[in-house]
Amino acid sequence: VGRQGPKPTRWVADCPPGQELQVDFAELGGTADMDKGERRKLFAFVCTAVHSRHCFVWPTWTCTAQDVLTGLQAAFEFFGGVFPVVIFDNAKAAVLRADPVAPALHPAVLQFQQYFGFVLDPARVRRPQDKGRVERTIRYVQGSMFAGESAMPLSQWRERAQQWSEQTAGMRLHAVTQRRPAEHFAEQEREALLPLPPTRWQWGHQGHHRVGRDGRFRLDGELYAVAGLIRENLWVRADEQTVTAWHNGEQVLRCARVGKGQTGGPPELLLSRDNAVSQRNPPPLLEQAAEHGPSVAEVARLTLGPPPWFGQVRKFKMLMELCSKYGSESVEQVCAVALSLQVHDVMRIRGRLELGPGAGVGQADIAVHAAAASPAVPPERVKPNKMAPRFSRSIDEFRRSSFAVANA
Q1: pLDDT band at 2, cuts 50/70/90?
Q2: How many Cα atoms sit within 13 Å of 99 on the Cβ side?
Q3: Which residues contact 320 (CB under 8 A, 6 or more apart)?
Q4: Taking Cα atoms as reference points, which of 75, 147, 149, 175 lies closest to residue 116?
Q5: How many CB atoms lie within 10 A of CB 251?
Q6: Which of 18-27, 157-166, 387-396 comes out lowest in average pLDDT?
């Protein structure tokens, strides 16, 4: 049996100028990562213009969807425009499900191609001949740009690759076209490209996230709150400044990104009355107390003073329960008397309210306090069964002179 050689291929004509760009990842080899201080495998995202063979190389340490999109954006900026058609293989970085007719693209790739206005056309599975122009360029990149190179940071690799693409690969005499690719591209393809968008594309994280029992989902160490979606799955996209979340196709969150360990979300949710306690945010609670009267609001302000926070919140909730039980008007009267006596203890206010309306809410306290304020008039004796609350009596009732103590 004779040795079988390579299978024959069919020659494919070049496309019109500025029509098609073929891209692929190439494995360059192992080298030291100067940023992390370890040895890693270096890859390159190679882009080749089909008509002129002008190429662009974007070194990278990984082959993710983010590398595909940042490499494509750098390529479009290098060429000065957008190719209407981009041919790529069926790598998971861009194609989630391969299909010869209706492939399922990565959501970030879909948004990227809509933003730039081109079409990503995946090649057939295990058919490198469908992108033969870039496959041929990969061998040239591996042997010319990388072979035998010393270690350097990734930023220097990218500067070197762009310089190599312009001066070495771009100025060589191509064997097929018999022209220099850079000059060929400048003459025929540059003007045929689509214009670049006015602003640069920002890479955004894409993925499903589950809302926890506390109403927040986690994203790269950051927490974001949503309302009414506990234990629901959200589709989240996050760029450098903004986080957006959808639930069943409906947008439920759009807010600015926060730092790691912090909680973000819409201000109307984080600063709402329902989340005021968990967020340690007194203003919504004070607004709630102000609805029952100014004296109630002042007692609430004094109650929600320095830490401990949750112990004082329990006292505040007791004050609101008193307003619901006895009515805002009665609590307002008692709070006004308590403030005039420089007292804001909620337990004492509750005890005064428990005496009931028959005792004349606030009147006995005001009379005793007025008598104590005038030294010439002795305080009025109050019958034992109607004795005023302890905090409203005159201090003279509890004071014993030094003479009386000495004779005792």
Answers
A1: low
A2: 7
A3: 288, 289, 292
A4: 75
A5: 10
A6: 387-396
Mean pLDDT of the chain: 82
Q: Does pLDDT of 389 surpass 50?
A: yes
Is this model's pTM higher than 0.70 or not? Answer: no
Q: How far apart are CA 8 and CA 11, in angstroms?
A: 10
Distance CA 101, CA 124 (A): 10
Residue 404 CB burial class (10 angstroms; 0-12, 13-18, ≥19):
exposed
In the block, residue with structure tokens 């004082």: 312
pLDDT in tens, 138-163: 989 988 888 666 678 889 899 999 99
What CA–CA distances, in Å, run from 198 to 119, 201, 231? 19, 10, 40
